[in-house]
Request: fold
Amino acid sequence: MWRPEPRLQRKLLAWLLGPLAVLLVLDSAAGYWQSVRLSTLAYDRALYEVAREIVLHMKLDGDKPRLEMSEAAANVLLLDQEDRLFYRVVSEDGQLLGGNTDMPAPKVDKAAKPYFHAGEVQGEPVRMMVAWMPLGADAGPPLVLVQVAETLNKRSRFTWEMVASVVLPQLLLIVMATLVVWFGVSRGLAPLQRLRRAVSDRSHLDLSPIDTHDVPGEVRPLVDEVNELMARLGRTFDFQNRFVADAAHQLKTPVSGLKAQIELALRENDLQRVRHSLAQLYISADRLSRLVRQLLSLARNEPGALDSMQLQPLDLNAHALEVSMDWVPQALKRDIDLGFEGAGQALMIDADPDRLRELVNNLIDNAIRYSQQGGRVTVRASQTAEGQCQLAISDDGPSIPVAERPRVFERFHRMLGTQEDGSGLGLAIVSEIATLHGARITLEEDTDGVGNTFSVIFPLRHAPPAGPL
Ligand SMILES: Nc1ncnc2c1ncn2[C@@H]1O[C@H](COP(=O)(O)OP(=O)(O)OP(=O)(O)O)[C@@H](O)[C@H]1O
Ligand SMILES: [Mg+2]
Reply:
């Protein structure tokens, strides 16, 4: 089953979650540092207060300090639900006045401020405070060294509570953002899913346009392009189908004729008659082979052939003269005066020589074939006023009526009453070749009012790019 484009979803999530995760780590580190600072500040002060409380329980025997703390007072002072408290009081001469004996004995300067540091008592990590504190009146001597230590449970609980209060809402935000992006993108991509289904469900023959009313704006240009491509494909398919149907239809009749003639010849015993049938067969086979050649040529010159074109600089003047010369024997057979009027200079065009030859052949063939016996056919190569190269073939046969002129270029179209043999493909081929060369083809009545002039006008070579007007 198709799921909404997971790659896009994953990408969006990665873009979102990556920076958020980095932010979360940075924020957690900052939160941790801040909470350690705050808890140290608060609980160190409390530790100092305990030390001061202990000093309040000191009495002076003369100038000898003595700790006088009842058990109840010690309990109030030192009992804590979470932590264990340790203390030690030492006199100036180093005598232990009270508290735990197993606490480390640091050296502290008497004038120094209370000194807080990490340490260990009875194998437990502690925060410890050491200070020389006065006992006498007006905060004077004697001094006692007070040491108070506390295990770290409260501090670490406070720290982690602070960190959690920063991190948890952010984690929640990330989870929410992930869900919103996941569902948002799924919903956003739903039209694409429908679009995909619409395409995958259709048959390969269905080239109708894809419905675009539900398509998101970002994808619409793409769908429009696909629709445009399908329309082009549809036109090509139609064209091909029509061509195949036409070709099959055109081939069917001559092939049936051939078969009938062969059957007839097979039944003949008279050698003379067999010879006659064979001669007829030869003519039919010749016609058929010309038809097949024309069909192949049509297929070879369809618009898709542009890639296989071998355009090269070519002198239209010389080329047209050369091709015209080949037609002289044919013209003579019909007593036609085949003339050539050159431009008197080379007319350079970009052309595929074989295809150009085919184009000229078809036009001269028509001119000779449809011209009257003893008529005149002129091939003219010239340059137009705009500098384009033009090839014109004129005859003095019956003029093609104006209404028929566009139609004679259609495939298999032959004018009614045409006596000559032919399949109606010659001018279609000419038109295809002209299109491949970017040339324009026109059909007009001949200048003297009798006959027809077919003109092919080739584009300028190396035309400068069209600039703004
Ligand atoms: N020079 C011309 N003078 C008069 N009619 C013409 C001329 N050229 C073409 N035609 C008409 O146009 C029709 C189409 O010409 P086209 O060359 O396409 O086919 P065709 O000559 O009939 O057959 P094909 O060339 O395939 O053997 C011809 O049948 C003819 O009626
Ligand atoms: Mg022809």
In short: The pocket of magnesium ion (ligand 2) is lined by residues 362, 365-366, 422, 426 (CB under 6 Å).
